[in-house]
Hints:
alpha+beta
Amino acid sequence: MTADLTRPDQLDPQALGFMCGLEVHQQLATGKLHSRQKGELYDITIDTVPEHWPRFARKLRAARGEGGAVDVAARFEAKRNRSFQYVQSPNAGLIELDEQPPLALDVEAVDITLTVAALLNARPVSLIQTMRKTVVDGSNTSGFQRTSLMATAGTLETEDGPVGVDVVCLEEDSARKLDTVDEKHGQTVIYNLDRLGLPLIEIATAPDVKTPEHAKITAKALGRVLRQTRRVRRGLGSIRQDLNVSVGCGDRVEIKGCQDLGWIPSIIRLEMARQVHFFRQANELRAQLDLPPLPAHRDLDEPSVEASVRERAAEHLPLRLVNVSQVFSSTSSGMVSEALNNGATMLALPLPGFSGRVGKKTLDEQGAQMPRLGRELAGAAKLAGVKGIFHSDELPAYGITQDEVDSLTASLELRTEDAFVLCCAPKWQAELALEAVLGRARLAYHRIVQEVRNVVVKKGAPDDGTTTPMRPLPGGSRMYPETDVLPQAISNDNWHHVLSHLPMSDEERRSRLSTTDTSADQAKQILSRELDDLFMEHAANLPHKAWASLLLAHDDQAPQLLVNILNLREANEVGRDNITALVEAHAGRCPSIDELRAYIEANGLAPADTSGLADVINAIVAERLDFVKDRGMGAIGPLMGVVMQAARGADGKEVSSLLKAAIQAAME
C-alpha cells in the first residue's frame, strides 16, 4: 500500500476500498415531541442563565439493555465519574425532568417525517414502536433518547447517482451543554433543557457514497429534500451531518460535527489517511513482536489471530503507573509547577518499544495535522477530563528540560526503544486518563477501532478537518422498547393522505414565482430564504416588487404588519422613506391599520404635500436648460439631489417620474 499520506487529496477511494454513508439529523419547526412544550431556544450561556431558572442535579448509571448486556458506549461513559446539573428553561416541564411519563408522538412531527419519507420514496412501517436508546453522557435526563423508526428502503437521487436511504426515524434532540466543572473526584456537566425533546428527523443512507466529493453532494441533496417541506428549522445547529467512513484496511468510524458542508470532502480524506497510517503502524508494531501481519482488508481478519495479538499486546504493555512528581519538584515548567502546587500528581506510564512511534506534530501539504499515535493517546486521556498529556517523543518541551527527561528515563528503567507518557492531574483523574492511554496504545497493534469521533472545531469552524475520539461506536444493546408510549399504526389512509399532500418541488416553486412581477434577484432571494409561500399568500392584493422588497427587508416581523404598512403606502398615507421607521417602531407587534394611521399622524410620517412638485421641477429644469440639453437623460441623476433639496419630504419615486417627464419635454 503505497498511498502518499502527505497528499490526502490524491488518495484513490476505489483503490482503498472506500465506503461512506451519511446520517442527517434535522430539527423540525414544531413543539416538543413528547411534552407539547414550545420548541423555543434561548440564547444563553453559563454566564447569562437567569437566576430564577431552577436547577436540578442528577447522577446516571449504565443499565442493561433488553438483551441483558450493557452497551459498550454506556459502559465507557459510566467510568467517567460525572455528575449532571440541569437548568430548567421556561419550555421544560416535568417530562423534560423525567418526572412524568411522556405523551404520544406529536402529530405534526409525525406528519412531517412521513412527508420526508415520501419525498425519499421510502416505505413507511405499519406500526410505529418508540424505542429507548441508552445515552449516559447526561444529555438526556432519563438516561436514554426516545426514537421511532418511521420508514425504510428509500432512494435519494443525486447528480452523481442514486444513494439508498436505509432508515428514516423520528427522535428527540438532546439537552445543550453549557459548561463542564472539574470537581475533586469527578466532573459536573451543566446542561440547558430548552433543546431537550425537540423533534429530529434522522435519515441514514446506505454506504452508497462513491467519493468524498459525492458525500458533500449527498448532504446538500438531503438538505434540499428537508427544506422542501418548509416545516424544518433553519439556522446554525438546526441540521447536523454525521459521516460513516471506512477504507478496506481500516474500519467504520462515525464522524460528528460536520456543520459546514464545504469541509466534508477534506474531513473524509483526512480520515482515509488516518486509517491507512494506523494500518501501517499496526503492522510495524506486530513485526517488532514477531506477530502475524494484518490482512489488507478487514474482511480477512481471523478472530483467533486477533485474540492472540490482543493477549500479547496486553502482556507487552502492562498497566504500570509510576508517581514521578519528585522529578519535577523544582521544574521550570510553569504549567507543571502550578498543577503540582494545586495538589496534582505527575504519573508516568512506560510504553515499551514505542519510542519514535508516538510521533511529533507534522503537517500534510494542505496544512492539516498528519495522523500520529500521540494525538490518539491524548484524545483518549482527554475523555477522562484532563487537558492533555506529555509524551517522550515530544520532550523536552513545554518547560520540561532534557535533564528531567533523562531522570525520568533512568527512574523508569527505560531502554532506548521505549517511550513514556506523563499526566499531571488529581491522582484519580491521572490514573483514569493513563488507563485510557494504555488501552489506546494496546489497540495500536490492531486495525483502527470502531468509534465515534468529533471534528476539531476552534472559534466556530473546523481547525483543519482532523478529528479526535469521543466514545466507542454504540452497539445494538443500547436499544429497548419504550413502554410509556403506545405503538401507533400507520394506516393506508394515513399514507395516501401524505402522498396526496406532498409539498411543491423546487422547480414548481420557481415556476410559480416566475408568474409574478418580481425581479430575478428578488425571486432568487425569496426562494433561498423560503419566503415564497408567504409571498404568494398576499401577492394577489399587493404590488409584487414592493411586497418582495418589504418582505425581504423585514422577514423577521409579523407578515400582517408588513401587509398593513404596504397598504398604507399604496394609499399614499405614509411616506415611502418612512416605511422602515414605521416597521421598526412596531417590531414584534401587529397593530391594526387604524393604530398605524394614528402613529403616522402623531410622528409626522405622512407624505409631504407635493401639490406644487411639478412646478418646482419644471423651474429647476428651465434654470438648467443648457445642462439638460447637453446631458439629455443623463441629467436625471445630478438633478435628483437638487429637486429633493428643494422639495423636502417628497417621495423619491414620484420625483424621479416627474423629473424624467420634464427633461423629456425640455428636449423636444
